[in-house]
Amino acid sequence: MNTRLLKTLLPISLLVSLLITPKSLFSQCAMACDAFVVIGIQPDSTFELHYSVVLEGDICPGTNSFSMNPADTVIQLSGNNLGTVQYMVTNLETGNACWGEYRIVNSDCNVDILPPIITNRPPSSILIGCNDSLPVYNITAYDECDPSVLITESTQVADPTSCTPNRVIRRRWTAYDDAGNSSFVVQDVNYSIAPGFTVDLPGDNVIACGNEVTTPELTVSDSPCSTFGENYTDVIVNGGGCSKIVRTHYLLDWCGYDGSGPGLTAPEKDIDGDGNADAYTIHTDGINWYDGTTILGPYNGFLTYTSEIKLPSCSDPYADCKSGIT
Questions:
Q1: Which of 63, 285, 297, 307 is the most buried (most CB within 10 A)?
Q2: What residue ranges in 110-177 does DSSP mark as E strands?
């Protein structure tokens, strides 16, 4: 099954901008806020409420901010201003937002009944590969009556040999204060294997004088993903008795793209030893790229490859492109 979504002659800088800028990814990230937070502050005391306290799962790219006038990353709270306030956190790169409420109450450290407030919350759900390590987070907590909150983590034991696309483990961080009050936050870790597929890479092409210049392309097959971005850029080089077009191909797989820059640059292969690169096929299992059983490099969803289109001179039919230009 061959699948294509985008085929353009846009400059690659513009294509990459269209494919990987945060604004184009807004539908792939989500904002989740705590619906209701109780904050204990003693009278005549203040507290800086950072958006990380109420944001559950900061997975959108770029900067987040409370939607205020002016917008800021913190809200100044006072123990003298009690009550319930609605808030909204907005991601400034994508425009995604979530909202909830916080209530300010006066804390009584003689009778401490309020749990710690967990800050720097981890994303509520993440997707990792079978061989990836669990990410490390700096989880902290605030408590008006206890400056040294104890934080513990409990995580299900992950067995990489049993990794399947539907496997999920749960991590839990719990914060305890001296009075025995506690609060917790959880994270679901989803293990996934990106869908594998093959890519046919074109070889070099020598165009006889007067013939139309063909446009060899990358061909994707055996893929369950129907969302690919493909583009190429040409550089024309003149010299000797012929000219050539150096064509750089770009392929982006939305099913496996991790958001970083180009990953593997597939090598050219001169299989028959005639000085021209030949067409061949590579494949991925969602973890690495392979030429047969040889690992070419790690897979990140972004592939580049260069081929050449050689154009002999019509005025000199005996020109040797291979020796006349490199």
A1: 307
A2: 117-119, 125-128, 140-142, 150-155, 168-176
Q: Where are the alpha helices (DSSP H) in the chain?
A: 12-20, 51-54, 321-324
**Structural tokens at position 71:** 């917008």
Q: How many residues does the chain have?
A: 326
pTM above 0.90, yes or no: no
**Which domains, from first to last, does the chain contain?**
6-20+195-311 (no CATH), 31-106 (2.60.40), 114-193 (2.60.40.10)
Distance (Å, whole) CA 105 – CA 78: 10
Q: Quote the CA–CA distance of 141 and 108 in Å, as a whole number.
A: 18
CA dihedral over 150, 151, 157, 159, signed as positive or negative: negative
By DSSP bridging, strand 125-128 and strand 182-191 are: parallel
**Nearest-angstrom CA–CA distance, 230 and 219:** 10
Reference 203, options 290, 295, 266, 296; nearest CA is 266
Residue 85 sits at the vertex; the CA angle it makes with 83 and 87, to the nearest 5 degrees, is: 160
Taking CA atoms, 212 is separated from 205, 208, 309, in Å, by 12, 9, 11
| Torsion sign over Cα 107, 110, 111, 116 | positive
* DSSP SS3 for 320: coil
Separation CA 301–CA 254 (nearest Å):
7
